[in-house]
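Sample entry was shown:
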Amino acid sequence: MRIDFFFTILLIFGLFSIPYLTFGEFPAYELTENDMEWCDEVFPLYEKLGLQWFLENHHYSIKARVCGSLYEDPIWEEAAGEDRLKKLQVRSNYYVELEIKESEEEAKVGIDDPTPVAISQPEVVDSVELVVEPKESEGKMEETIPEELPQKEEVPKNGGGCLIATATFDSELAPQVQFLREIRENVLYNTNSGKSFMVGFNQIYYLFSPTIADWERENSTFKEFVKITITPLLISLGILDYFEINSEAEMIGIGTALISLNVVMYFGIPTLIAIKRKKIRKLFF
């Protein structure tokens, strides 16, 4: 009986450890010169549609935030010549460090502010001395602006980000939190049924999530418990990486399957274990 019981516990914790192996610790993040080219390409849209649209359209990613900081940095106008991208890339790594540090500090006090650090904390940004070289021909980037600018559809939201996941993984830039945000923005918000689900979910989620997040920050043991608890959810949501959801029917079908899977993991398996233990106790005691 004891061997069977401990084997079951070992199996459950083995399953729970999958996301730690999948996501790992907070990764070393560094933008490349290709990322700087991307910043160049989307800059005209940033100028015309504004910061809020830019961040929402790019899912508040760390790359979008760093580009936002670079746009407000004198280096964006001063850097020129063949090594312009290299200069921007070197400067971007400074902003990456600031973004990660800021997100970790915000997680400790329950703040989820996706504003680029150069805008939210201009006092912490050091000045950079650059050799200003003559700029090459301007107006080139205007070609990247579409004739009809895209409009982001408004999606009703309650609250801000993933409060519990942010408190659990110590930063809203942690891979697990970004993973949840990308599913919300790239999958759920692409269909009406997904949007409707998120509206209902948010109405319930933000009733208790601030309290849970506060408890996590106050008690490290409770935080580890929450981390283990949400692990099956992360595992199940990873299934979405293998599907392309292009219709309402697909969203409803896959969504229903995921909800059923989580019901089984959170309620079905523990119930079966409890029933089995009760039967074994009756046999031997």
Confidence is low (pLDDT under 50) at residues 1-11, 127-159. The chain is about 65% helix and 0% strand.
